[in-house]
Write a structure and sequence with these properties.
Length: 358
Amino acid sequence: MIKKVDVCIVGGGPGGVLLANLLAKQKVSVLLVERTNAFAKTFRGEHLNEEGEHILKRHGIYERIEQLGLLKMETLEYWHNGTCIKTIMPDEAVGHLGIHVPQAHLLQAILEQAKGYPTFDYALNTTVKELIQNEQGQYTAVRAIQNGKELLIESQLIIGADGRHSSIRKLANIESTVRSHGYDLLWARIPAPQNWSPSIKMALVEGMQISLFTQAKGFVQIGWNIEKGSFPSLRKEPFTPFIEKLCLAFPQLASSVKEHIQSWKDFVLLDVFSSTSAQWGKNGVVLIGDAVHTMTPTGAYGLNSALMDAHILAEQLLQNEPFDYVSCATMRKREIEKIQATQIEKEQKFSDAFVVLK
């Protein structure tokens, strides 16, 4: 089968879906390609900051997400030995310290809008296998497999929005510089205890960060930093002493933790690294989001940066003058460099918040 479109976007995460929506709204024919058989199956960051909130409001999407369900964080708390030692309240002009938006709600709201445009289409269960070049070296098509059958997508522009292990980046031979941050992350999600307020809570346990993020629908997400590459040996150790550290750090969570985290299998491991690419595209291929600048979980910048990439790239593509991805990339590179530097600084100075004055 052969499909012809103006733009082929590979990757059905927030950045790719938003870009597809914004282009289709302006009558650009778009095919959104997703390798899984449903949107929102892959775990991703789910916290909006002011920037992400502004973008969604600007494009008339935020209100629908509110209807589907979101949760505004009311406090940022630092805990030491089971006691809250510091509380940060939101700026009154902002009204929150981040917003938990279930990814399913975010993608549903954007897709509902996109499906109203006749130039929008999508292909699920579709895996890209090859980028095809013309005689001038320009990438002009994507060869993919959809439900076991070959699909050829001819496109004037190919967008790689397919995440930190981007196939499009690799197939286009765009190099990526990876930086280790010295830790990996264990994720778990458990029901919130009764009367749990919408908050972000932090603790320092044996020199490693533990973060609790309140989620919509009555859950708490746990992010536990561990030494880089240590999980294979860690999971050979007894589980109970390990999980007891979490209960001591946040006593009000102990009952839910003991009921819902009973083995190493109840954690999901995230290999933490950041990355940047000197090239954000070439010869008809452009990268956005984690495909071109992977973030660590620190500060929850990843989702918001992907949304901003999509917003700015859509504006650039829709200008009357010839599209110049280099100027678009240059604009974003400066901002991404600042964000990644901020993440490193936050990680290095995290323990400073737990200096208890005598």
